[in-house]
């Protein structure tokens, strides 16, 4: 089984979100970047398939050279090799088209991703990629087993879970549950040393175009201070008469 | 030219988000000066949608017992093409978020998910979307002729706007499904976090799973869903399905009550789409007080039972 894991390079959740250039660009100043937490769950599941079922695991990112430390971290966690498509991501469709080319060229039969990225939260790329490739697609995956080309999965639905079956090739968008939080791996020194020697191949983009353009960003309106009350009668009164939510 | 809204349902009942996207689609159709067409797939009674402005409802009935991504994408495409729809509007239920990107590729349409407001302009077509876990918004222009808009849950709201509607059945062909549903497990008789107007959530401040009785009682009085912080689900005090926060379930309710939750950034990232937030915590320095609208500095073991008792009286009054 050849697995490709899509890795987004995203600001750490604790980052301050600011915009520059008249609010047209995300301000990267002082921002710490990490592997998208949702992708990390899927990458960890891929490592399980590598160790238990002999799968090969390639990680891929569409981005500039600044994303390479994030790919190296994925290699340190245990991926065999990495691909960076040398293009600034402009929208979900552009990224999905570039990834589709990587999947076709590499002959991958299982593509794993996180269900969303922690920056734009668009939940677009995995579904678009599946559609472009005409692969089977399961979103919000919280459990997956592969036997030959048969795949059994659990996916989250509103208010519960659904068990489904499918076949490779497929795209799976994972979230917490595909592995548990405790299964996530912190790269050890040996992994970090080995990652330096693993191949990180830079490929040039196909020139896929975006279908959307971000005109500008906005920050939420500043929030007023919390209203502290010292008894539940006042709270009920405020929720009823002021906030009108009960 | 028309605007097509997909009104999602589950087991023959419309989801709450279906009424929200019909309301949204009604306004977009007015902005564009075009007709509104609402599609249901094995959905509920079309008259429920008339109440929100759906004049034309297209019903697709088939043997599918539950959602299937490829099939739903194909049906939406077929109806969009038959009805000359250039704008397709989809909700942010789990199914809506799954099918949206597939529809966009099938129609060669630009896709903007997580829209929180009506288009600020229709030419160019610009829509405001939430991003960065609600710490920012981006105003996105869809530059293609066809457009798919995903509406963020509980952002626009459902607005009654009764019309006399008509229903038409549509015979859609099904593609190879690719993914087969085997079984569905759902908690019955409980308000789900996805559907709830009010969510009551508790954290490690409750000291142990044996103390959740009062949380459940509070949820019951309010008709709310129960939720918990990540440490609580990691400790196994509550099921993982109740974990809300960045890697857990997102919450976009009207009211979110946090009991004994300190308010780590990862927790807030998942719940800050909620409109009104209340915190009950003994520690006045807890970060949640900075994110909340209302707060009580106090011991949950005293405050919550009082709140239950007073709310019961309030509800009866």
From TrEMBL, chain A:
Assigned keywords, A-Z: Electron transport, Transport
InterPro entries found in the cross-reference section: ETF_a/b_N, ETF_b, ETF_beta_N, Rossmann-like_a/b/a_fold
Entry GO MF terms: electron transfer activity
Residues annotated as domain Electron transfer flavoprotein alpha/beta-subunit N-terminal: 23-212
Top-level taxon in the UniProt lineage: Bacteria
GO cellular component terms attached to this protein's record: cytosol
Keyword Electron transport: yes
Database matches in Gene3D superfamilies: HUPs (3.40.50.620)
Pfam families: ETF (PF01012)
Family as reported in the entry's similarity comment: Belongs to the ETF beta-subunit/FixA family.
Protein's name according to its UniProt entry: Electron transfer flavoprotein subunit beta
Species in which this protein is naturally found: Tenacibaculum caenipelagi
UniProtKB/TrEMBL annotation, chain B:
Keyword match Disulfide bond: no
Cofactor: FAD
One GO BP: fatty acid beta-oxidation using acyl-CoA dehydrogenase
Cofactor stoichiometry and binding remark: Binds 1 FAD per dimer.
GO MF terms held by the record: electron transfer activity; flavin adenine dinucleotide binding
Regions annotated as coiled coil: none
Pfam families listed in its UniProt record: ETF, ETF_alpha
Domain Electron transfer flavoprotein alpha/beta-subunit N-terminal: from-to ranges: 3-181
InterPro entries named in the record: DHS-like_NAD/FAD-binding_dom, ETF_a/b_N, ETF_a/FixB, ETF_asu_C, Rossmann-like_a/b/a_fold
Highest taxon of source: Bacteria
SUPFAM superfamilies: Adenine nucleotide alpha hydrolases-like (SSF52402), DHS-like NAD/FAD-binding domain (SSF52467)
Residues that, per the record, bind FAD: 204, 260-267, 281
Keywords tagged on the record: Electron transport, FAD, Flavoprotein, Transport
Family: Belongs to the ETF alpha-subunit/FixB family.
The protein's name in its UniProt record: Electron transfer flavoprotein alpha subunit apoprotein
